[in-house]
Write a structure and sequence with these properties.
Layout (H helix, E strand, L loop, with lengths): L1 E6 L8 H17 L2 E7 L4 H4 L7 E7 L9 H14 L2 E7 L2 H14 L2 E6 L5 E2 L2 E7 L4 E7 L4 E5 L15 E4 L27 E5 L10 H10 L2 E4 L1 H5 L20 E5 L5 H7 L4 E6 L6 H4 L2 E4 L2 H16 L2
Parallel strand pairs: 1-2, 1-4, 2-3, 3-10, 4-9, 5-9, 11-12, 11-13, 13-14, 14-15
Antiparallel strand pairs: 6-7, 7-8
């Protein structure tokens, strides 16, 4: 028996999310009295793979092959399911990001497993197997019992601390037969020179309280000082003040940074649903009764256009910029 965790890589490198998943899987494995096995897909150097052992992975399986040069959900899900059966994994853990949401249901079907989506804590118990997850756009939580022999879980980012637990490095490189490869990539375009919203540790977001697209300068300046990504609410992107690429919320990008600045954002349910996974939310709004203050850990009641320059000045002083 084992716990299998799929760790995504970006151009051959792991990010904090990967180590967070391994830390979480290791603790789940301890609850079950077994070990955590990490599976990586694609070309990753041994020195990078070895980093996973520092967070408790007792074995690291590296799957390589031409079929993995293209992100094909069928191939990825089939490969992970094959490894899960080979390793007699009773729990399979993936990230609750775009990739995890795409392949986890396929894996669950292949393994005839119950699926727990968006878990954010360790299981409440393992016999019976009960998971904790947020529901109703983060306004409540539910304990869900999974009765199948094998369980597939997708884990919400920034919900678990990194826990170092050095294990002997045991890397196993293998291949699996491709399932079906119908995906053909004709062109690849990568965004450069800008922090991606889905990767950012800090996000500075603006709403209609910024009053005009001409007032965005201080917000962008704050993001630059903090090394943060910029974002906006849906009304802002609909008005054309900012790109739709920056739209966060239930109908935009769902993110979970460590720190989220909601500046001039009232806090509509749809917006908060997309950022409720943030570890800390700082709200700035003139309306003391704005719903965003109920979700925020810290709040400033005031005009964003007056508060922002002072924030920028304070952070510059702290960071020596």
């Amino acid at each position: 028996m084992s716990v299998l965790v799929f760790v995504e890589n970006w151009d051959g490198k792991f990010k904090k999310l990967s180590f967070e998943l391994v830390s979480y899987a290791t603790k789940v494995a301890e609850m079950l009295g077994t070990g955590a096995i990490a599976v990586s897909i694609g070309k990753v150097e041994d020195t990078e793979l070895a980093k996973l052992a520092g967070y408790g992975a007792s074995k690291i399986i590296s799957l390589e092959g031409d079929q993995f040069n293209v992100l094909d959900n069928q191939n990825y899900s089939s490969a992970i399911a094959v490894v899960a059966l080979q390793q007699e994994s009773k729990v399979v853990i993936l990230s609750n990001n775009n990739m995890g949401k795409a392949i986890a249901p396929r894996i669950a079907v292949k393994l005839k497993a119950g699926l727990g989506a968006g878990v954010s804590r360790l299981p409440v118990s393992v016999d019976p197997f009960v998971i904790y997850k947020k529901v109703f756009s983060g306004n409540a939580f539910a304990n869900v019992t999974i009765k199948s022999e094998i369980k597939v879980l997708t884990f919400a980012q920034n919900s678990f601390e990194l826990i170092g637990k050095q294990m002997p490095v045991a890397i196993e490189k293998t291949t699996v037969e491709p399932a079906v490869n119908k995906t053909t990539v004709t062109e690849t375009r990568k965004q450069t020179g800008k922090i991606l919203l889905t990767d950012a540790e800090i996000v500075v977001s603006g709403g209609r309280g910024m009053k005009s697209p001409d007032n965005w300068g201080p917000l962008v300046e704050l993001a630059e000082v903090l090394g943060a990504a910029t974002a906006c609410s849906r009304p802002v992107s609909d008005e054309g003040w900012r790109s739709h690429e920056e739209h966060t919320g239930q109908t935009g990008k769902i993110i979970a940074p460590n720190l989220y600045f909601a500046i001039g954002i009232s806090g509509a349910t749809q917006h908060l649903a997309g950022v409720s996974g943030s570890k800390y939310i700082v709200a700035i709004n003139t309306d003391k009764d704005a719903p965003v203050f109920e979700a925020a850990q810290y709040g400033i009641i005031g005009d964003a256009l007056k508060v922002l320059p002072k924030l920028v000045e304070a952070f510059r002083e702290v960071k020596g910029k």
